[in-house]
TrEMBL record:
Protein name per Swiss-Prot or TrEMBL: Glyco_transf_7N domain-containing protein
Membrane topology term: Single-pass type II membrane protein
Every Galactosyltransferase C-terminal domain range: 178-248
Subcellular location: Membrane
InterPro entries recorded: Galactosyl_T (IPR003859), Galactosyl_T_C (IPR027791), Galactosyl_T_N (IPR027995), Nucleotide-diphossugar_trans (IPR029044)
Residues passing through the membrane, by range: none
GO biological process, one term: carbohydrate metabolic process
Signal peptide: none
Database matches in Gene3D superfamilies: Spore Coat Polysaccharide Biosynthesis Protein SpsA, Chain A
Protein family according to the UniProt entry: Belongs to the glycosyltransferase 7 family.
Amino acid sequence: LYRHLTKLTESPAAVAPNLLNAPNNTAKNLSACRRPPDKNLAHLLNQPTSSFPFARPTYRGGFWSPRSCWPPLSKTAVLVPYRNRSENLDKFVPYMQTLLQQQNIAYGIFVIEQANTKLFNRAKLLNVGFRVAQQFAKFDCFVLHDADKVPENVGNIYDCVRSPKLMISAMRQEGDATQKYHRGRMYNNFLGGSAAISKQAFERVNGNSNRYYGWGREDDELASRLGLRGMRIFYPRGHVARFVNLKHSSDVITNTMPWPHWSRVRAVMNKDGLNSLNYTDKGIYLHNLFVLIRADL
C-alpha cells in the first residue's frame, strides 16, 4: 500500500467535497440508513487481501459514504497511529474498507505516521490526526485505532452513539486455531486498542496528552481525562464486538510515565493536549484506500 501514494497538492476539503452531503440531492427519495445485520468477516483474514470483496471507495483517499440511503448512521474518521507496521497496514486497510462499507456510515481512514526516530508517541499522533481529519470533512465521531487490531463483525458499528466507548468486547490472536478469546476490557477504565469518542468529548478533555513517548499509559490518561469531565466509558459485551489481534514483531519500548491518577491529570490536562500540540508537517498523501499524514514529533 505504501508504494501507491500521491502527495496532496490541493486543499484537503477539495478531496471529498460531497462526502457528508446527500447523494445527487435526492435525500427526499432515500430511506434512512439502518444498522446492517450481523455478519462475521474474520474468515477474510485467511485470504489474500487482493481477494477481499470491498467496493471501491466513493472518493480519492479512501473516503466512503452510502449512496442508497440517507442520512448515514455516523460521520466517522478512523485515526490510525503508525510506524513500521507495513505488514499490518497492508491487511488492516483493505479489511476495514470491506467491513466499514457495509455499515451505512460516512467515513475516512487516516494513517498518521511518526516520521522521526524518537520513541513512538501514539497519543500525539492521534491529536495530529484529529486536527488534520477535520480539514477534509466535518466528522463528528473519531475512532482511535491501532493498526494491529481489526473487528470481526459488520454489526460493530463505528459510531459515537455511546461516547466514549471501547470498541472491543473480546479479542483473540490471529492464527489461533483454538479461537480462544480474551476479554477486551483489560482492567477498570481500560481504553486501548480501539475506542470511539465524539468530536465534542475529545475537545472537552483537550484531546490526548502529548507527553507519552514510548508504549503505554497514554490511553489510561485519556480515560482519566474523560472521568474528570464526568464521562463514563461504555464497554460492549457479546460476540458482535469481538476483535482479532494481527501478528507483528515485538519491538515496542515501554515508557516510564507514572500511572495517570486523577490528581496528576487534573493539574496538566488544561495545558497539555490539543491546545499545546506542535509538530512538523512532513506531507499529506493520498492512497486509493486511505490518507497518510506524516508528522515529525
